[in-house]
Structures are given as structure tokens and as C-alpha cells.
Amino acid sequence: MKLRVFIILILVFSLINYYSFAGQSQVDASDVFSSGSASLYATKTAGLFATTQYSVSSIKADYCILYKQVGSSWVYVYTINPSDECSGCQFEAYVDFSAYISTGTYRVKVCFRANGHTIIRFSNPRTF
After folding, report:
1. Domain-by-domain residue ranges, the chain?
2. What is the C-alpha to C-alpha distance for residues 47 and 93, in angstroms, rounded to an integer?
């Protein structure tokens, strides 16, 4: 009886572990992108960078959203849709948020798109 309960518990924990990691890996999985990042600089400018695994006809940032930390939550401040677009394997753009940042802690969220695939990245928080 104890062996049967032990085996059932192992199966349950194995399934929970499998599905939790399977879902996590699918979020970042991409057949196109090899990397993507966003950085918020002291100049109140966001740097957006993406690299694809092979040359594509178009890489762009669909949007870049600025958030401000209020308590333990992140509150929407402003969205900029960068007009930069390029072909090849690398994307680099800079977005000026200086008109929307005062004092406090901020971060940006960016959505990159290439060949119908998208990835979303957040910058590290920066305090001004």
C-alpha cells in the first residue's frame, strides 16, 4: 500500500514538473530569434536589440512600453512604436522616453517581430 502511494506521488510530481517547465520553455522558444533585450539608460533612452538565427527580410520592434513602479506594481506610462525596421540578422534601435520619466523606478517592455514570430522582453528596472 505504501509503495503504491509513493509511486502515485512520484507520478503526480513528475507531471507537475514536466508541465511547469514545458510551459516555461515555450514562452521563450523561437524558431527565428536567437536573442532579444531592452535596456533603460541613465539618459532616459531605451536601447532595443534583437538577433535572429538567420537572415530575415524584416526585423522590427512593434512597440516599446514604459512602466513606472508604484509600490509593488508596475503602472503603464507611455507607448512608443519605433519606426526602425531592418533586414538581415540584427536589429538595434533607441527610443527617447525623457519626456515621460521623472523621479522613480522605471522599466520598458518591447515586442520584437521577424518573419511572423514575436518575442517580448523587459529591461531591468532603473531608478531616476
Report:
1. 1-30, 31-127
2. 6
Site of grid cell 516599446: 64
For the residues 19-32, what does the mean pLDDT come to? 51
- Per DSSP (E only), the strands in 1-128 are 33-40, 45-70, 73-80, 85-96, 105-114, 117-122, 126-127
Task: Give the chain's radius of gyration (CA, Å).
Answer: 20
The per-residue pLDDT for range 31-44, each reduced to its tens digit, is 889 899 999 999 99
Which DSSP symbol is given to 98? T
**CATH top class, domain 31-127:** mainly beta
Tell me which amino acid residue 42 is: A
Helix (H) or strand (E) holding 9: helix 2-28
Model pLDDT for residues 84-97, shown as the tens digit of each residue: 788 888 889 999 99
Look at the block and give the residue holding cell 515621460.
100
Q: With cut-offs at 50, 70 and 90, classify the pLDDT of residue 98.
A: very high
CA 56, CA 108: separation in Å to the nearest integer?
A: 25
pLDDT at position 25: 35
